[in-house]
Specification:
about 325 residues; 17 helices; single chain; mainly alpha
Length: about 325
């Protein structure tokens, strides 16, 4: 009922806000509440934030609890805050709400990055990377209200890179069960969704830091294939979660091919990561259509200069792999895959 009483004082609003969060924490600890309770509460609190002072109180509470992740016993409150931000940002409609967020965006990205960094030090919190990515995606998609600079996008990419390295370190030391495999696939899909939105809606901001994005894609390729190495099926077949991850890479490569003028200079580096994986794992998996299509999208933005650079910088094995697939690509332009 809070949105109905917009005339209540700011002090009363602040007290109600704190009471709602305390109630959620108590109920969550006893497993007697679903996340929908939190989402409804945050939406109502957001609608009732009819003044700048109230909205500042709401955001201050969320940011304060987000920063409490530095204490292990407080991580649950930080998770609540990150989820609340995603719900709140989806609810906001007033121009001055987004003006506040725009003014504090650098700090917000840093605080979410700090939370993600804590999650990266403990694999039981890896699933909350998607929560941070979701907040970033909502900001990226708000093209009408939220101007983003290259600095903003670069900071988000830094968080992506950190999360990839956290997974990479974990995969090098742990054997994966079905539950972890599923979490890893959700992580890749969430990252794919954020990068796609950034390329589609914030391409100008991406162009100045496209080298950083290429590095992220290379690291993501390495981690996905590391995942495959530990998760082939019992009969030696290709793991379905691996194919789900590679389909995300394929779509990212396709989107990059739509920005050929910028990314063609980085094509040799992307191809280098692919050839390295071919050497490690052989050619069998590369005959899958979705994987092959991804390589062909990168080949499509290569000029003669890039193809000569690729050929010159690899050993005999790498050159033979490249020649084989590049010949298939040239034939596919006339015959299809």
């Amino acid at each position: 009922t809070l949105p109905r009483y917009r005339t209540v004082s700011n002090e009363t609003y602040s007290s109600i806000l704190l009471a709602c969060f305390r109630a959620y924490h108590c109920l969550k600890e006893s497993a007697n509440v679903q996340d929908q309770f939190l989402y409804d509460t945050v939406r109502n609190c957001g609608r009732a934030a009819v003044s700048e002072q109230r909205f500042d109180q709401l955001m201050a509470l969320l940011r304060k609890t987000l920063l409490e992740n530095r204490h292990v016993e407080k991580v649950s409150t930080a998770v609540v805050s990150a989820k609340s931000m995603a719900v709140l940002f989806e609810t906001l409609s007033e121009e001055w709400h987004w003006q506040y967020i725009s003014t504090h965006l650098v700090d917000l990205i840093g605080e979410l990055g700090d939370f993600a960094s804590y999650c990266g030090r403990n694999n039981q919190f890896f699933e909350y990377f998607e929560t941070v990515f979701n907040v970033f995606k909502i900001v990226v998609n708000r093209t009408k209200h939220m101007p983003l600079t290259t600095s903003h996008v670069s900071s988000m990419f830094s968080v992506l890179g950190m999360s990839i390295h956290s997974w990479k370190h974990f995969l090098n030391e742990a054997s994966l069960d079905a539950n972890t495999a599923g979490k890893f696939t959700l992580f890749v899909q969430s990252m794919y969704s954020l990068i796609m939105s950034t390329l589609q809606y914030r391409s100008r901001a991406v162009y100045a830091c496209c080298g950083q994005l290429v590095t992220i894609l290379g690291d993501l390729t390495d981690v996905i294939f590391n995942f495959f190495e530990n998760n082939s099926t019992s009969d030696g077949g290709i793991h379905p979660d691996f194919l789900s991850c590679v389909r995300c890479l394929r779509r990212l490569y396709e989107e990059i091919s739509h920005h050929a003028a910028v990314f063609k200079h980085f094509a040799p580096y992307i191809v280098a990561h692919v050839l390295r994986q071919m050497k490690l794992y052989g050619l069998r998996i590369w005959n899958k259509q979705e994987i092959k299509e991804g390589i062909f999208f990168i080949f499509s933005i290569c000029t003669d200069h890039e193809t000569r650079q690729i050929f010159a910088t690899h050993d005999a094995v790498g050159r033979s792999f490249f020649e084989s697939f590049y010949d298939q690509y040239k034939r596919s332009k006339f015959t299809g895959l």
